[in-house]
Amino acid sequence: MRQTQPALSCQDVTMRFGGLxxxxxxxxxxxxGDVVGLLGPNGSGKTTFFNVVTGLYKPAAGxxxxxxxxxxxxxxxxxxxxxxxxxxxxxxxxxELSVFDNLLIGAHNRLNNGLLHNLFARKAAQHSxxxxxxxxxxxxxxxxxYIADHLFDPAGAFNMIDRRRIELCRALLGxxxxxxLDEPSAGMTHEETFSLMDDVTSFQRQNPDLSIxxxxxxxxxxxxxxxxxxxxxxxxxxxxGSYREVIADPQVLxxxxxxxx
Length: 261
Ligand SMILES: Nc1ncnc2c1ncn2[C@@H]1O[C@H](COP(=O)(O)OP(=O)(O)OP(=O)(O)O)[C@@H](O)[C@H]1O
Ligand SMILES: [Mg+2]
Known about the structure:
By secondary structure, the chain is of the alpha/beta class. The chain contains twelve helices and ten strands. Strands 6-7-8-3-9-10 form a six-stranded mixed β-sheet, sandwiched between helices. It has a four-stranded antiparallel β-sheet with strand order 2-1-4-5, covered by helices on one side.
């Protein structure tokens, strides 16, 4: 029996695009500190689930609760304030802007005190920016000290793994309680992917209440980091269990390899 309340509880979530059912009564519970691998063939609904949880898409039905709060249909900014952050399948950094500017965009919720405050409470605004620079530098240093030392270089000057690290820092700066990672390995080598995931794992060990849902096609990455796996096919959950259990499941084999499996 689990002692903790689930951090995220989704029940019977359904998302349709016209006649296409991208999520079909999908349910998932994630407890504080869980690292859950979300698997499934291309087009099975994984990213759609993240888009629903973060409020980009409004589902047709279901319930979504986070830390006991109802998040169904809430706007993305409110969901982010509630403690859910994400990375995207494709790199979403503005490459011509500095690392710091990119981090600042992610901190909109934290730093946006309104125009009047910023115009008239200059000292307070200055203080919050200065402390944000310190927090950004500290966090980046945990992933790669080189990034922390080059906070004002353009993001485009960094290699792919550092760009992914910057994206992670952007998500983590808001101190989320749930982190959604959509294919962090995209565009990277095996070694880079393992190195990035080791960074994530060690960050999570230092923040043991942080829950993570990881979408990843590289099965070795899933095996290495996740304690539990959930497999989607055509928007439906077809299997849930340990990595070993799901890779041996006939329905999962069929979803990936066809009927011949
Ligand atoms: N905005 C949208 N409008 C219409 N259809 C969409 C939209 N977003 C997703 N879909 C469809 O929903 C289904 C699930 O897509 P989704 O992107 O969630 O898959 P995925 O599991 O993330 O796939 P991949 O592994 O390729 O990233 C697909 O059939 C896709 O074409
Ligand atoms: Mg996807």
